[in-house]
Protein 1
Amino acid sequence: KLIPVLITNAHEDWVLPIYGDGMNVREWIFADEHSRAVLTALERGVPGEVYNIGSGHEQTNLEVVREILRLMGKPESLIKFVKDRPGHDRRYSIDCSKIRREWNWSPEIDFASGLAFTIEWYHAHADWVREIKDASYLSYYDRMYTRRDETLAEL
């Protein structure tokens, strides 16, 4: 959910809430690439086997938010650090070597290009985004980001 929140908030010049210090590491993959890997698993996979889908591309949440702001031409002053969730994992990582080895699969679209495509998609569908950010969404957003017990100082 991080990337959609960041893009849609930046589009409206709203603050971009980042949990904790923003140094949580995640492996990122463009949605179309993930779908392509799932299709490959359906076509070439063995029933009952496990296939971890990944890109091998890891970045911190802070690196991702800074790249989104750069691509959108927005200032880093939109970043707001908020109290982290209890028990929030510092790093998510998977071993996707099986699909690389068995199928010679790897992403065709790198993270930076996929991120640019994603930003453009949200820009082209701004009316849809406004419709889904209804009262229930705004209530959830307020609970998760706006009224956290504590706001951390900017790094």
Protein 2
Amino acid sequence: IDIFMDDKDKHVIGLVDSYEKEFLSYSYPLLPCNVFDFPEKIDRSMYDTVILSIGSTLQTMQFRKELFETYKSLGIKFTNAIGNNVNIRRAVKIGVGNVMTHNSYVGTGSVIGDNNMISYGMNLGHHCIVGSHNLLAPGFTTAGCVDIGNECIIQTGVNTRSFVRIGNRVVLPVGYL
């Protein structure tokens, strides 16, 4: 929600979540459904795209991937939620359904797939490739030409040098170098 608070071009119609108490301070309604029955219960004429904002652990990222693929198979479209102070350089390509939070940097010529959760303070060097369904935690930093596969969890404070390849379904622990 914070990402869209200053964006006059975006209109949030509501939230779907089981943690009602956490959203009482926002002026957005909770929609009368859960994530499983959302496609059937909410009329598609009410929205253009959706954003999946879950994902902070291996389990929630796997769940996020399942929802993304299920919704996509039903023809639901996704938008990117990109914070207004994310620095995206030239010739960057970004897929759909990504959440990129404040104070992140994406270097020139980088490519980011679909449905990634990119946390604040992440620095992706030039000409990097990020697959789909990844969690890049706060403070993750790469040098140039790093290739990250799909379904990875790269935790807080991880740093890489140039020309590193991180395969699919890799979990790098906090502070890993």
Protein 3
Amino acid sequence: SGFLHFLGTLGKFLSPREEGNISEMRRLFIRAGYRSPKAMPLFFGLKVLLALSFFGASMAGKLFFWQKMSPAGFTYILIILAVVGFYLPNLWIKLRISSRKEQIQRGLPDALDLMVVCVEAGTGLDAALNRTAEEMKKTAIFLAEELGLVILEIRAGKPRQEALKNLAWRTDLDDLSNLTTLLIQTERFGTSIAQTLRVHSDFMRTKRFQRAEELAQKMPIKLIFPIGLFIFPVFFLVTLGPAVATIVK
């Protein structure tokens, strides 16, 4: 649309020119799930637009609400709001990457179990990856998307080891990196893929159970603040309120 074209044109002036910076930004966009070449110009265009919007909002606030504010204080607010608007897209990218990694991590044990079933049924590793990607679309769409990209790269002629390395690079997950390393070593040394996947699947299942236990153990500590802030005052009001009223009378 015209608005996206305007953002892209605006962002081209701020887009990095050095190849190292470009590669780093592309890596962040890929891990966030944005693979279009237009993602980088749109990202920087949005940064400029938000900075200008926050700048304009602060000027409007000065005209209608902050007439008595000192020039120095208004200048500080102006700068802070413009900087906040400029860096909001960076925060969005980080949150997007974190959410995507969490969903992939959550679906990985189930995907491993499905791959074990497929390989032990006699299918090859490529067919098992393809079948897992198809079945995981309903429960772990991001993991299914990444596995589908592995299959597409292999079908395009890329070696399987390189496609698996790209999977680990795109996701930036330790568990998935360990899995790809195991698969590469299994293919290199000719050991049983089914046995390797089963052992790693058992390990991932145990690790998921331990992670759930860890979260459960942290729960009482996290409940201290809401209990102290919301429950204890009401409890004291209900229990001590009648006694205080009686004493006052």
